[in-house]
């Protein structure tokens, strides 16, 4: 399907062919949900932890004799029922990551791209460059374009001046094409792809 190509000055400079197998799929929320959960699980630190009985400083002596006191038998002051004792079945350091088939990950990315195309929130940009590298100049251009929440995906490498200008703009993310992912695409209102990004993503996902 044909899609107009614009510049950062909001001028049309031609069109580009978007592959239906990448940008024209049916939107499946179940696939998007699985991929986003997989991404978030991989990001989770898993460093939460409580101390077991062997990790608590304290005496190893029996609190009092086993029989004859009329009280319940106790074996350690570091046990769960005592103040300052261990936590029973508490969390331990672990990885929350789980496996997800490559085919599902690939389908999720294609589905996210298709969702933006279907909702008319996909913009194809001629190139994402900045001669000055100034945030003020870029913000002025974004105001004309009306982008308040956008993800810009460039080719294999992001222009250094553009990345520097976009670094402090609230609501704007910039990624190289190999960093394109479902979560970042969905969390921003507008998806902006450069010509180079379209070419590389179609080669990668077809």
From TrEMBL:
One cellular component term from this protein's GO annotations in UniProt: ribonucleoprotein complex
Protein name: Large ribosomal subunit protein uL4
SUPFAM superfamilies xrefs: Ribosomal protein L4
Keyword tags: Ribonucleoprotein, Ribosomal protein, RNA-binding, rRNA-binding
Origin superkingdom: Bacteria
Organism, scientific name: Roseospira visakhapatnamensis
Function: One of the primary rRNA binding proteins, this protein initially binds near the 5'-end of the 23S rRNA. It is important during the early stages of 50S assembly. It makes multiple contacts with different domains of the 23S rRNA in the assembled 50S subunit and ribosome.
Keyword Ribonucleoprotein: yes
Subunit structure: Part of the 50S ribosomal subunit.
InterPro entries: Ribosomal_uL4, Ribosomal_uL4-like, Ribosomal_uL4_dom_sf
Similarity section: Belongs to the universal ribosomal protein uL4 family.
GO biological process, one term: translation
Gene encoding the protein: rplD
Basic residues biased stretches: 64-76
């Amino acid at each position: 399907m044909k899609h107009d190509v614009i510049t950062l000055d909001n001028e049309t400079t031609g069109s580009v062919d978007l592959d239906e197998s990448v940008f024209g799929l049916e939107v499946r929320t179940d696939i998007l949900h699985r991929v986003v959960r997989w991404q978030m699980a991989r990001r989770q630190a898993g460093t939460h932890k409580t101390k077991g009985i062997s990790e608590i400083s304290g005496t190893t002596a029996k609190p009092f004799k086993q029989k004859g006191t009329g009280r319940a038998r106790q074996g350690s002051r570091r046990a769960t029922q005592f103040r300052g004792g261990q936590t029973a079945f508490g969390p331990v350091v672990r990885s929350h990551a789980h496996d997800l088939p490559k085919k599902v990950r690939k389908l999720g990315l294609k589905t996210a791209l298709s969702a933006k195309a279907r909702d008319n929130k996909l913009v194809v940009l001629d190139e994402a460059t900045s001669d000055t590298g100034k945030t003020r100049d870029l913000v002025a251009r974004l105001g004309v374009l009306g982008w308040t929440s956008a993800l810009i995906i460039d080719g294999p490498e992001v222009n250094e001046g553009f990345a520097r200008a976009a670094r402090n703009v609230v609501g704007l993310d910039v990624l190289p094409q190999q960093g394109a992912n479902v979560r970042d695409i969905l969390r921003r209102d507008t998806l902006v792809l450069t010509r180079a990004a379209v070419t590389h993503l179609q080669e990668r996902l077809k």
